[in-house]
Design goal:
The strands form 4 sheets. A 7-stranded mixed beta sheet has the order 4-10-9-8-7-5-6, sandwiched between helices. It has 13 helices and 14 strands. The chain is an alpha/beta fold.
Length: 376
């Protein structure tokens, strides 16, 4: 089964958390890898934060045309890097492509973390970096999110002294909550003075879905700041999860360290062509952002009408407190052919639900309402 970026390297990790004193406190335990359930061809797939829409006709056309160059090593990556540089207002030397941002995240850990310089990561979050660091037996410091499901920046700053790498996902996965960009920039400024060796990865996988003026990309800053890398993916709003395309924006010297740890020198000519076509299709991009907003609002309203807490979301998924064990609720949904996100450390009754089409969310919420009737 082809797994999306967000499920490829996910595991439950080495820590669970319990609510204590208004924040989630980590409790160490042996790692428990997440084993995905068998595929269900009938399922409404709301489990991996994928785009519910198939690639556009322009993308499909570009992929078919690129097949004619399948006998050659790809040369269109230069064009994609140029296009991305123009999009972000940087130079081509500030762009590094990867087979999904997942490949780049895996490469970042051995590039910047060693026995004396630890990894810092919130929990729960997208845990590729945590999983890789543990597998390599590298030091890790986890910082639990707070009771509002927000990243604990004060705790993260304290834990980052002397760190080799700090990973931040904003909006965060699985909570969907957002920190204002000015707060992230303040953290970066302070770390530059307090811990100048620390490299920060800012994962902007869900940037296109954010609808608040408090947020902006830090890609331009990353181009000139050797302590910052911004990661982006084509798996979400562009709907290319199965074609594996992502990229990093950063200072050339920092990208050089990352490049040495990647596993591939070439990307599939079809994937690059798909990304180029998707990047240039503004009408489809805007339509999918709007569709996500509408379907998300519908889903939030259904849950809130029943009296369940839905945490603020600036992404293509939501976090809902269903007031019943998350694993049990997920299993019950699967029996009804609705796949939702896996259980996450510390989220005992909160479940992550990806946003599908409006029709899919109407059908899925009917299932949710039926299963949650006793709790409601």
């Amino acid at each position: 089964m082809a797994l999306s970026r967000r499920r490829f390297v996910e595991s439950l990790g080495a820590a669970t958390a319990t609510m204590l004193g208004g924040r989630l406190e980590a409790a160490s335990q042996a790692p428990r890898p997440y084993v995905p359930p068998p595929p269900d061809p009938l399922a409404i797939r709301l489990d991996s934060n994928e785009n519910p829409e198939a690639p556009s006709s322009a993308v499909s056309k570009a992929v078919v045309e690129a097949l004619a160059q399948g006998n050659r090593y790809p040369r269109n990556a230069f064009d994609l890097a140029e296009a991305l540089a123009k999009t972000h207002g940087v130079t081509r030397d500030n762009i590094f492509l990867g087979a999904g941002s997942g490949e780049l995240l895996k490469a970042a850990v051995p590039a910047f973390v060693d026995a004396k310089r630890h990894l810092v990561s919130p929990v729960p979050t997208f845990n590729t970096c945590l999983t890789v660091a543990r597998s390599l037996e590298l030091p890790v410091r986890e910082v639990p999110i707070d009771s509002r499901m927000l990243l604990d920046l004060a705790g993260i700053e304290a834990a980052s002294a002397g760190a080799g790498l700090l990973y931040l996902c904003n909006p965060n996965n699985p909570t969907a909550t957002l920190l204002p960009t000015k707060d992230i920039e303040g953290l970066l400024d302070r770390l530059a003075q307090r811990s100048p060796e620390t490299v920060v990865i800012l994962d902007e996988a869900y940037a296109h879905f954010v609808g608040t003026a408090e947020y902006r990309s830090l890609a331009t800053r990353a181009a000139s700041d050797p302590r910052l890398l911004v990661f982006r993916t084509f798996s979400k709003v562009y709907g290319l999860a199965g074609l594996r395309m992502g990229y990093a924006v950063g200072h050339p010297d920092t990208l050089k360290r990352l490049r040495l740890r990647t596993t591939s020198d070439f990307l599939a000519v079809t994937s690059v062509a798909a990304a180029l076509a998707a990047l240039g299709d503004d009408a489809v991009l805007k339509a999918r952002i709007s569709s996500n907003r509408d379907a998300r609002a519908l889903t939030v309203k259904e849950f809130e009408t029943l009296g369940f807490t839905v945490f603020p979301s600036e992404a293509n998924f939501i976090l809902v407190d269903v007031r019943t064990p998350a694993a049990e609720f997920g299993a019950a949904c699967r029996k009804e052919h609705v796949a939702i996100g896996r259980p996450f450390p510390g989220l005992t009754t909160q479940v992550r639900i990806s946003i599908g089409t409006v029709d899919e969310m109407r059908r899925a919420t009917a299932v949710f309402k039926r299963l949650l009737a006793p709790a409601a």
